[in-house]
Amino acid sequence: MADANEDGLENDHFETHEEDEESLIRYYFYRGFDYKEIVLFLLQNHDIQMSMATFKRRLRRYGLRWQLPEYDIDEARASIQSLINGPGCLQGYRSVWHTLQLRGVRIPRIVVQQLLKELDPEGTEMRKAHRLKRRRYHNPGPNYSWHCDGYDKLKPIHGCIDGWSRKILWLYVTRSNNQPNNVAAYYLDAVEEYGGCPVDLVTDLGTENGTMAAIQSFLRDDPDSHRYVPSPRNQRIEA
């Protein structure tokens, strides 16, 4: 009987681990991260080591495939309307689509484009004509928002500033500013140096920001604590 109980406990523990692993994979999958980024997140953020072949087998087991998602058009319309009425009022359809992906709302990009034309026809035309009104920048104080970006025209560099004071938090010359591991390391060094992470982390849509975005969301326990924005909207660091 003792052996049976021990086996039962081990099986329960294994099933719990499998369930946690599945929920983590689903979390990152539905937010639009690519396979390499998800495998990296599992290792760095959750201490789950997995080869790419094993990861793909897990996807098949959980029924996760890149395909056109099923969605409720009314729910999609309401989600986009809430963005238009809030901080996403000047976002284009690509940025809106990415924001929805991060929130777990999976809608084809072409549908987002069509709904934006329906819900915000004036804004759509202004974006086409590049006549959007200038936004006011609001920031409550130091270390509330960090803005990060890279530049590789002359020599690859990567930097980050505090949105309130424009203090340079890091600025590195590197062989490549397109490696997610490098960018995440810069971020973690700054978190250690300044004793914490920002409330809001702002980056462009580059894939090199994926690991840093996941760590920020994990540390704040809030997927909305990181924002992907088009480069022209990340003006605190762009300027």
From TrEMBL:
The keyword NAD does not apply. Keywords: Nucleotidyltransferase, RNA-directed DNA polymerase, Transferase. The keyword Cell inner membrane does not apply. Pfam families: rva_4 (PF24764). Signal peptide: none annotated. One of its GO terms (molecular function) is RNA-directed DNA polymerase activity. It comes from the Eukaryota. Residues 137-238 form the Integrase core domain. This is RNA-directed DNA polymerase from mobile element jockey. It comes from Paramuricea clavata (Red gorgonian).
